[in-house]
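Bumping my old thread because nobody answered last time. Still need a sequence for this structure:
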C-alpha cells in the first residue's frame, strides 16, 4: 500500500499532487499557490514552503537558492467598524 506524504498540512496537499502540477508546467511557488492553495492556510507557508521550493528546484535541476520564494502577504484580520469610526486609538 502506497502511503501519501502530506506536504501542506493546512490545505492537505500531498507531495504527489505537487509533483503532478510541477510536471504540468506550474513551476513557481505562486503558481502552485493559485491552483493548490499551498501556503494560504493558517501557517502561511511556514510548514510547506521549503519543501515545495526544494521540489521545484529538483524538477528544474537548479539550486534552491535560484527558485523565487513567491509573494508574501500578511494575513488579514477583521476589524470592528466601531474601532475605525473612533479613530483607531484602542
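Sorry it took so long. Here it is:
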Amino acid at each position: 500500500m502506497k502511503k501519501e506524504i502530506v506536504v501542506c498540512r493546512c490545505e492537505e496537499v500531498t507531495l504527489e499532487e505537487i509533483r503532478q502540477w510541477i510536471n504540468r508546467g506550474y513551476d513557481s511557488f505562486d503558481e502552485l499557490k493559485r491552483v493548490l492553495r499551498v501556503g494560504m492556510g493558517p501557517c502561511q507557508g511556514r510548514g510547506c514552503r521549503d519543501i515545495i521550493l526544494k521540489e521545484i528546484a529538483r524538477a528544474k535541476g537548479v539550486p534552491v537558492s535560484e527558485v523565487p520564494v513567491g509573494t508574501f502577504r500578511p494575513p488579514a484580520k477583521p476589524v470592528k467598524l466601531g474601532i475605525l469610526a473612533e479613530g483607531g486609538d484602542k
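The chain has a mean pLDDT of 89. Let me know if any region looks off to you.
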